[in-house]
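Work package 3, deliverable 3.1, input record:
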Amino acid sequence: MNGVHDMGGMQSFGPVRPEPESEEPVFHAEWESRVYGMSRLLGRLGLWNLDKSRYNREQLPPAEYLANSYYENWFAGLRKQLVATGLVSEEELQTYRASAPVPDGIMERVVNAEQVRAVPIMTTSYVRPASAPPRFAPGDRVRALNRHPRGHTREPRYVRGHVGTVREHYGSQLYPDLSAEGVDEGHHLYSVRFDASELWGESANANSVVYVDLWEDYLEPAR
Amino acid sequence: MSHHDHYDHDHTEPPSDIELRVKALESLLVEKGLVDPEALDAVIDLYEDKIGPSNGKRVVAHAWADEEFKQWLLDDPNAAIASMGYVGSQGEQVRVVENTDDVHNLVVCTLCSCYPWPLLGLPPVWYKSAPYRAQAVADPRGVMRQFGSEIPEGKEVRVWDSTSEMRYLVLPQRPAGTEGWNEEQLYDLVTRNSMVGVEEARSPATVGAA
């Protein structure tokens, strides 16, 4: 979707204001760490995936998305997801008192501390079998399609319609546009190189290129 | 300021609305049995104290000190990084991009906040902020200037927008004047910011005499 989350090239946000690296805490308040931790643990229940979580945040009203801090957006996305999956009822979100049962088959998937410390359990595989051979190879010229899907996509607006060169084929990986809808399919993924002048015209930095990871569905052959 | 200082609230101030709402949701989820409080503490502990930029710094220092490892890291990053034990969520598929005399690399995620957690920990606020996400792809040299880094025009700037589940780590250039330094000494020159690409590694002068 063409949301405010798709920020590449926007110009009105002012300067980057980094905190000095040696002074920046991992979390700036305890509640941020709780939101992060709850999101990670609940994600492991398998009722939603990374793309769905991203899509939830992308669908927040634009003014809210921009006004919220990062973890406020995570919190808003999590609340939405909890209700959508029936883990928490609307009423419970209002009263914060348990009144609705947990759906069947969930409790045995609740993650414990030992599982958190076992690193492989916290990893995810994104590699999926391909249904067809890759259409492109390194060196091929490709154009990013001028698509404007209403759903989740990982084709940023600033590359659409522009021509680049395939650098690497990353194999067949979970396709986010469908994954956000709960469909688990592998599509070919490529690293594509764009000259800055192709993307930004006369405003481009000198001697600069941008690499973007793009699924085959986002690309067509170009000359 | 150590990060624990942030938890020492001024108790004359009432807790904020978001604090109360997060606490209430946590209590509800614990009551329903959906969140194990011990597991919650364990996740937070992992990312607050155990998984951070020191992992990436060790990888870079090792690559600087050992040419063979460096080649392995560039050719087969996942195997090389796994050999040092830094596997985990958001680091399943890594590419290492090398800064040279001719090339400078910079990493961003314009769509959200993708970042190689097992190597660098959770991203800093500026990396997730609108100004960085907006400017990094369109004006990378301008962004680096805001970090005090000036990249000569003769050097190609390569921006990596993390739009998939591939994660990018910048291998900064080993600073001049570090001939004969061992891995431990080199480690002190690596910064998180240099592994995202907004800065170069520290110069030997900043850490005293070799």
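Residues 70-84 of chain A form the longest helix (15 residues).
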